Amino acid sequence: MKPDAGLVNHVVAAALALAACGCAHGGGTAGTAGGMTGVRTPASDSITVALWHLDEGSGAQLFDSGPFRLVAASGTDVRPDFGRIKGGRRFQRTLDSFLFVPANPVFSPPGGFTCELWINPTEYGQYELTPLAGCWNEQPNQQSWMFALGGRDRKPPVAYLPSPGVFSFAFPTGHLGQLVFIFQPDAAGSPRTFFSGATIPLDRWTHVAVTFDDSVVRFWVDGLMDAQYASAGGIRSTPAPLLIGNYFDPRWLTGFSGTLHANAPDLNPYYAFVGDMDELRISSAARTDFPRRQ
Q1: What is the DSSP secondary structure assignment for residue 250, as one 8-state letter?
Q2: Whole-angstrom distance, CA of residue 35 vs CA of residue 27
Q3: Residue 112 · residue 273 · CB < 8 Å
Q4: Which of 23-32, 147-156, 200-209, 266-275 has the lowest mean pLDDT?
Q5: What is the mean pLDDT of residues 58-79?
Q6: C-alpha–C-alpha distance, residues 242 and 275, integer Å
Q7: I need a labelling partner for 181 at 20 to 30 A (CA). Which of 60, 148, 152, 286 fits?
Q8: Which CATH class is domain 5-16+48-161+177-283?
Q9: What residues does each domain of the chain span?
């Protein structure tokens, strides 16, 4: 039986109701993090779409310092942890390890796009990739963009289960630990896939970003441009929600006491990100200024 869309909307609304009162997380230009010279808290500016500092010490809601106050609801297995700057969030290899933000057209801005965050991965995924953030699912016309880390692409008997193959269409082998950006063009055509040159290390904080100005896709690692690709055309807008740190069909979300749970028929966490995230920002232009490793 497929989940009822009206019920899912009700569940999500209930999970976010507490945050809807306007208790936004304070953004701005806080000083350097203790012992981290030159690393500043990012600020919400004129091109910020959303900015989650992920500093909340408890609770199932994570507040957005951007102009739209887009509250993220946490899955039950995401935990507060030390971040790159102040607090962060720890993601685990379970299906209930994710952050969820309801669909909003601002996540696919016309004319320019940036997705950036600090990550500290502790393992690479078993399958094609592990999502960092994306508005993408398998329902018709709900593919927009996905920012991820390349995985091991293992198959049985090395992998316990075969991959569901959601991203096999765009994923040649040999990109373990590299950044991946997939987007669906707003014109007719197949999804486009791009990879960074650098491999993101395990067990170390790295600032990663992808930018697109409707003509060039660029990857940035620790503030330095790593790779660029010409690609004309915009990113398709979509009614898909934003899912952070995991991938599954959002129609399977259920909620209880203000928390979200992925009540899927297959509970294997094929695409779960394992590690920490901090300071996730989405912007409506292609940025060029990012934190550099000191």
Answers
A1: G
A2: 20
A3: no
A4: 23-32
A5: 94
A6: 19
A7: 60
A8: mainly beta
A9: 5-16+48-161+177-283
